[in-house]
Design goal:
Helix 6 (162-176) runs parallel beside helix 7 (200-208). The chain starts with 11 loop residues before the first helix and ends with a helix. It has a single domain (12-309), classed as TIM Barrel (Alpha-Beta Barrel). It is built from ten helices and eight strands. It has an eight-stranded parallel β-barrel, surrounded by eight helices. Strand 5, helix 7 (200-208) and strand 6 (213-217) form a beta-alpha-beta unit. It is an alpha/beta fold and 311 residues long. It holds the Pfam family DUF7916.
Amino acid sequence: MTQVKRILDATQEELTRYSGRQLLESIRAAEGRTVVAETVVTVPPLVDGCSNPELAAAFGADLLLLNLYDVERPMVTGFPSRTPIPDLPEPLKGWEHHLGWGVTAEQVKRVTGRPVGINLEPATRHTVSPGRLATADNAVKAREQGVDFVTVTGNPETGVTMEAIIDVLRTIRAAVGEDLILMAGKMHGAGTGTDHWLSEEQIARIAEVGCDVLLLPHAGTVPGVNYRQLIRWIDAAHEVGMLVMLTVGTSQEGAAPSLLETLAVTGKECGADLYHIGDAGFSGMAPPENIMAYSIALRGKRHTYRRMAKR
C-alpha cells in the first residue's frame, strides 16, 4: 500500500483521493484524533447560503456522514438543485434552487474536500424509504455516487437489531468488494431497547462478515453503557482488526460544549479511533461550536485549526 499521511496532516485533495484502505490507514495513524460529523440531508441548513456539510467541515470535521440520504432520490439541502424536482408541493415552488435535488455524495465531497459516507438501515418497520435500506444494491449505488464509507445502523424507532446488521453486512461486502469502508453498529436502541447491547461473540462475527469500523454508543449517551464495557468492547474489536467509532447520537450533541470535551477525553482513555458527533442540534447538525470543541479536546487547537483552514 502506498504510504499515506495521518488524517491530521492530509490536504483536502489527498483526503478525497485516498482509497478506502488508504483512508483507514490514515485514520489509524492519527491515533484517536478523527472527527466524524453527521448531518441530515433533508432539512433546511442551519445557516442560509451554506449547506450543513460545508458548515461541519468548516468547524473541524474530518469525515462527513449524511443521514437520510436516499440513493434512489439523492438530495442534500443547501446545495443548488441539479435536476428538476418531481411533484414539488405548491408552497415550495420558487425554492427549488435551494433544495439540493439530485446532489450526490460525490458533489458534497468535491465541495467540502472531505470523505463522505451515508447511513443504510436494515429496518424492520415501514419508516425507511427503499433507497435508504441496507441492501447490496443500495450499497453499490452509494459507491457509484461517490460514497467513501457506508454506515449500517438504525435511526430511532426503525427496529434495527445487531443481528440484522450482521446478516446484511455479509451480502453488502460481497457486492461492493474490499475497498469500500463498511462501518456498523448502533448509536442508540433504534426502538429495540438496550438491555443487551452487544456481546464479544457478536463483535467477532461483525468482523468476520467484513466490517472495518465498529460503532459503539459513548458511555453516558445511552442507559447502561459504561466505560468498563466500552474498554472491553474496544479491546475485543481491535483484537479482530476493526477500528472503533464512539458515537454521540442521542441529542447530547446539542448539549454544552463541556460535555463534548469530557466525552472526547474519556473516549480516548477507552481507546477509540474515531469520534462521531450526531445531527440533533438545531437544524440537522450539531451546533458548529460543539464540533469545534469536540475536535479541540481530541487533538488541540493546532490540529483543529489546521483542519478548519487547510485546503
